[in-house]
Each structure stands twice: as C-alpha cells, then as structure tokens.
C-alpha cells in the first residue's frame, strides 16, 4: 500500500439491533455507476457468505430515469465480467432514506454535495454519508479522479470499463470492512466462561431533455 494511502473507514455500527445492515449507493441517474456497485457488492457478499447480513440498494439524486433499466452500456460492461444487471430499475434517493440506511455512499463529489443538502444536519457530515471510493484500498492522495467514480454516461466504452474497475476495487474494500464489522465473534453461549477461551483458540444513451450536462471529471 503506498505510504499516502489512508486507512479504510470502519463502517459505523448498525442503527438497529436486529435486521440486516443497510448500504445504499448513490449516483446521478442510477443507471450506470451506482447500479454497478449494487450488483457487485451483492455478488461479493454472497461469495463471502454475508448476503443475509447486508441489504444493498442504489438510487440517483436525479429523477430522469426513474423506473427504467440500467444503461445498456453499463449492463454490457457488467456482462463482460459475468454479472447480470437486468433486474435493476432506477430510483430517486429520498431524504427519508437517511433514517434507515446505515451507510450512504456517493459516487462523486457532486452526488455527495447533493446528498448533504438533503440530509438532516446530524447526517450531513457524519460517518454514514461518505464518498464510495474511500473504501478503495488503492486510493492515493494523487488519485486522478480525486477519489470519485467519474460519470461514464454517454461516453465511450472505455469510460464504462474504467468506472467498472473503480467500482470493483472499492466494492472489494467495502466488503472486507463490512465483514470485519459484521463477523464479530459470537457472544459466549450460556454456561460458557467468558474469560476462558475455547480449547484451541488464540486470543444506460442520449441525454434526456432537462438533464444537466454531463460532468467531466479529470483523468480522461
Ligand atoms: P449515473 O450516470 O449517474 O452513473 O447513473 C448518469 C446517467 C444519466 C444521466 C447522468 C449521469 N443523465 O443526465 O440523464
């Protein structure tokens, strides 16, 4: 790990004592980046045996694509890597969701600023609302994308491939952090001596009318 790479954030403790941990990915249209992250994190958690412990969803700050499928190019990129994005339908993030998501992860700084605008004060600067790529173990101070997943919408296939790679790296880091949080050692069974360790133990094309211009982020 490069010396200027900060430690990964520790996901905050769950809001509720029971039920799954809830993670929501947020981008602008909810048809490219955040659905990719949604599909990839579900797959990673399933592989780690953590699917039941974490509920994953995604949304956009904009409403242009609500009810529609994933961008065909994003879906194709997922397909190239063996993932299926066909079930996705776009949704718009609602401010009320802050109260029941444990972690809300923004794809870029504009998404983060929009989310902070709609968040209750206590959430806006808190540990439950973060830039998604803060979970990328390879994220360095000189990152060409300034810690963001750049918006690939309407760009060439390479932009979708780049977005996939960035999303995949951060999903892997996030899954590891969630595992660390949620796979805590079980409480001792009744009758066990808590002080005595068990034997053997060591301690989707054309921009729609009304849509904002595409964001061009650095590095392309
Ligand atoms: P996403 O990409 O935020 O990664 O889903 C976009 C999709 C649609 C638009 C912008 C970005 N749009 O302006 O319609």
Q: DSSP helix count?
A: 5
Report the order of strands and helices.
EHEHEHHEH
Helix- and strand-based class? alpha/beta
Oligomer state equals single chain
Mean pLDDT: 87
Q: Biggest sheet, open or closed, and with what strands and sense?
A: 4 strands, parallel
The CA-CA distance between the termini, in Å, is 24 Å
Outline the fold blueprint.
Elements: E1 21-27, H1 33-47, E2 54-60, H2 72-80, E3 103-106, H3 109-118, H4 121-124, E4 129-131, H5 157-182
The structure holds 4-nitrophenyl phosphate.
4-nitrophenyl phosphate (4NP) binds at residues 27-33, 60, 64, 151, 153, 207-208, 211-212.
Describe, in plain words, how this protein is organized in 3D.
By secondary structure, the chain is an alpha/beta fold. It has a domain at about 30-180: 3-Layer(aba) Sandwich (Rossmann fold), CATH 3.40.50. Helices cover about 30% and strands about 10% of the residues. It has helices at about 35-45, 70-80, 110-120, 120-125, 155-180; strands spanning about 20-25, 55-60, 105, 130. It has a four-stranded parallel beta sheet. Helix 1 (about 35-45) links the parallel strand 1 and strand 2 (about 55-60). The protein is globular, with a radius of gyration of 19 Å. The relative contact order is 0.21. The protein binds 4-nitrophenyl phosphate. 4-nitrophenyl phosphate binds near residues 33, 64, 207 and 212.
